Amino acid sequence: MRLIGMAERALESMCARASQREAFGRKLASFGTVKHDIADARVLIDQARLLTLHAAMLMDTKGNKAAKKEIAMIKIAAPKMAQHVIDRAMQVHGALGLSGDVALAQCYAWSRVLSFADGPDEVRRSAREGNEFECVCVC
Known about the structure:
It is built from five helices and two strands, in the order H-E-E-H-H-H-H. The protein is mainly alpha-helical.
């Protein structure tokens, strides 16, 4: 998905900026919060990527209807992941992250737009809740 690519690009930009920029006499990459943001970003990106690959595998082997719940989960998880990762990258860049000199602000705006593309999250969540209750409440 394009959101995973945007988040990957934001992570690369965050790592580059953190290794180049100095604050208080130290590289940003040496600060614990920046290290945690980078580690969290990698985890979130890989989670979204694995969920996407799992859905693709189901679509290839069992058909699109079999992957319905995974597709709904991706449509909720991927935009949230991208917005979080891009936001943290913008924080590391400071005011530069909002400028046109880097693509982070545009990526953030597009990740927000894409979260609305197939309808609101509430609709997808409602569909997921019903599926979960069917699995759990077989009394």
